[in-house]
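Example 3.2
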Amino acid sequence: MLQKTVGIVLHVLKYNDASNIVDIYTRENGRVSFLVSVPRSRKSAVRSVLFQPLSMIEFEADYRPRASLHRIKEAKSWCPFRTLPYDPYKSAIAMFLAEFLCRALHEEAENRPLFAYLEHSVRWLDECESNFSNFHLVFLMRFSRFLGLYPNIENYRQGCFFDMLNACFVSSRPLHGAFLPPEDASRIGLLMRMNYETMHLFGMNRQERSRCLSVINDYYRLHLPDFPALKSLDVLKELFS
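Structure, written as tokens:
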């Protein structure tokens, strides 16, 4: 059945000389894998340049019941980027977040609030002109809501530990090893208060930003089964240092 929809590109894998497998988070069907023919002419209905990390595309696909791969027939840009592919810092963020989402999102079902969050975030990153160094930190913290992993910060008091396993603050050191000491725990509340519009007001040096990113990554790895080490994580840390 042919269906027109929109989606955000997460990952591209070469399948053979004639086709690629593209993972896309779609508005109507959640995460879906598509078979995309490698174009052999400039007049092709599907161009490879469309499938960059976090690209937003509008496309028509042939959905087959019980099939693991569906074929894209036509595709075009849904939201042409103005800066994201051309700014090395934004491109690094996009590459990291696309890899993260590819590992974290497995839901093959409609989730309009999540799709709206992803769309808004990608558009904001492309349109902002400066002060986006903390963007990925804010994105990851707020994304945790959609996975049911949002930390409980109600009981925070100065000197508390953060129990990463139970996602809450505690007054004494947990018996297990998955916790943050008070110095690191105090940054959780800071991160939770940030949003895209206000994040530039929160002072954070390179070491603090790198530490926060490592902690957030460890938090997701602790709660998501088989969540691997991300190859783009070190690239992002290096670029912002």
